[in-house]
């Protein structure tokens, strides 16, 4: 064991999503995505405004302008010592409508440049193929993932990426937080917010098949490719030791893990098929679907971790929300300014659960604290609260690796640079190690400033986690 207690070659870095950082929403042939129609609001159900007035503010349209400033931002990532950068491809840059047969060359060229810039700085790219930005055309014309035709559109899109970036990109994620489709069906699936569970599970099944095809094509194009699944994970604790509370929490946990079960184990668990039957949920499997899932499971599991939650059998509930996951408030935990409960030990707990269950490599691809940052008169941003949050969670991760024997090969802090919040469209909910001069109304210079946490994280990476 090294004196740093961390594996050699551990991938320290940061993470963002295209629709939250790039901007340039209609440049160089890019088509409109679902997110391009979202206005800023703390209530995500009210954010979609297809017929909004022309003067409405759409945060994704410019975001933080990574599209034009990627060299500056990647240089900052390199200065912080990043070994990896988890990013996503905007589907609508490659296929503006989503159903074309030939890709948009200007979109591919943009990501050529970004990936080459990362490689120049010795930063390993991790690419998410679909991160909550599906083409609006696929929703309007096909009904989103409820339509099986999207499997072929996605598979074609993924194959184009594998072929274009062969030899440059090794790590891929098929869908961002695939389980969030149950909570955010509009954003994740392109279907109605009030869709039935049967409609959601059918659309999710289509994503499972698309993911398996991506694994198939990715390995055929380059056997060295590692194609991962990605889960939005929050451990579910029973609120009390009452057997009914323990049982409810366990059932909810298993329903969430079902998404990773299918993608990593390659089959639908019997308990989930029994649940479908008990709820009269009829998910149609086409001929060959089950064989495809079995033959092409994902190689590793990436997951986001922000909070844990609790469950009880009580009808009267004190609710707490975090990352789209609604549970009950844990009386033993503190909360962020957005009401997300803070539980560093929950990350160690989760790492153990996921590694014991799947016995495949893990990577934490999102973890961070959304908070309001104040700029001092000196221009400094003293975000000790963020350092405290990240430090506690990284220590929990280290313990899972070095004490519990969990195979976790990387950690990418979300979002390493301030970005548009996916849940609210706000800029004031800041996660970054790097401040971006931008407010909730889209005003500001877009200038980048390193926060105190930037220097802390840089030192941590230099010491491979020793501090």
UniProtKB/TrEMBL annotation:
Residues of the active site: 366
Record key words, sorted: Glycosidase, Hydrolase
Keyword Protein biosynthesis set for record: no
One Pfam family from the record: Glyco_hydro_1
The keyword Hydrolase is assigned to this record: yes
Protein family membership: Belongs to the glycosyl hydrolase 1 family.
The name this protein goes by in its record: Beta-glucosidase
Upper taxonomic lineage: Bacteria, Bacillati, Bacillota, Bacilli, Bacillales
């Amino acid at each position: 064991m090294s004196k740093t207690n961390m594996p050699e070659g551990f991938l320290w870095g940061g993470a963002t999503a295209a629709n939250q950082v790039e901007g340039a929403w209609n440049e160089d042939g890019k088509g409109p995505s679902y997110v391009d129609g979202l206005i800023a609001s703390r209530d995500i159900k009210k954010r979609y405004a297809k017929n909004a007035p022309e003067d409405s503010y759409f945060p994704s349209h410019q975001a933080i302008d990574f599209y034009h400033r990627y060299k500056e931002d990647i240089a900052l990532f390199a200065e912080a010592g990043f070994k990896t950068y988890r990013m996503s491809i905007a589907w609508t840059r490659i296929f503006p409508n989503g159903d074309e047969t030939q890709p948009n060359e200007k979109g591919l060229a943009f990501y050529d440049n970004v990936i080459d810039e990362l490689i120049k700085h010795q930063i390993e790219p991790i690419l998410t193929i679909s991160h909550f930005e599906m083409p609006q055309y696929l929703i309007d014309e096909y009904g989103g993932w409820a339509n099986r035709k999207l499997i072929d559109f996605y598979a074609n899109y993924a194959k184009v990426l594998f072929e274009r970036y062969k030899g440059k990109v090794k790590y891929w994620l098929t869908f961002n937080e695939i389980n969030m489709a149950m909570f955010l069906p509009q954003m994740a699936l392109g279907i109605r917010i009030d869709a039935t569970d049967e409609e959601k599970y059918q659309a999710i099944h289509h994503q499972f098949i698309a993911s398996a095809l991506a694994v198939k094509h990715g390995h055929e194009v380059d056997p060295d490719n590692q194609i991962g699944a990605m889960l939005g994970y929050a451990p579910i604790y029973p609120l009390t030791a009452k057997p009914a509370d323990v049982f409810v929490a366990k059932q909810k946990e298993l329903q969430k893990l079902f998404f990773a079960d299918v993608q990593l184990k390659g089959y639908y668990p019997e308990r989930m098929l029994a649940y479908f039957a008990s709820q009269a949920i009829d998910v149609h499997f086409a001929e060959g679907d089950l064989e495809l899932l079995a033959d092409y499971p994902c190689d590793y599991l990436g997951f986001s971790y922000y909070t844990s939650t609790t469950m009880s059998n009580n009808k009267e509930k004190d609710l707490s929300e975090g990352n789209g996951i609604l549970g009950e408030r844990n009386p033993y935990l503190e909360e962020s300014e957005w009401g997300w409960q803070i539980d560093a030990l929950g990350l160690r707990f989760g790492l153990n659960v996921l590694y014991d269950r799947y016995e495949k490599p893990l990577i934490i691809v999102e973890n961070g604290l959304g908070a309001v940052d104040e700029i001092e008169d000196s221009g400094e941003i003293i975000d000790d609260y963020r350092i405290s949050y990240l430090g506690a969670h990284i220590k929990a991760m280290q313990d899972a690796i070095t004490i519990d024997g969990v195979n976790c090969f990387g950690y990418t802090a979300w979002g390493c640079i301030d970005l548009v919040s996916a849940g609210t469209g706000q800029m004031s909910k800041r996660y970054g190690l790097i401040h971006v001069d931008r407010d909730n109304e889209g005003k500001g210079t877009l200038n980048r400033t390193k926060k105190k946490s930037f220097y802390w994280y840089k030192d941590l990476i230099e010491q491979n986690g020793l501090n």
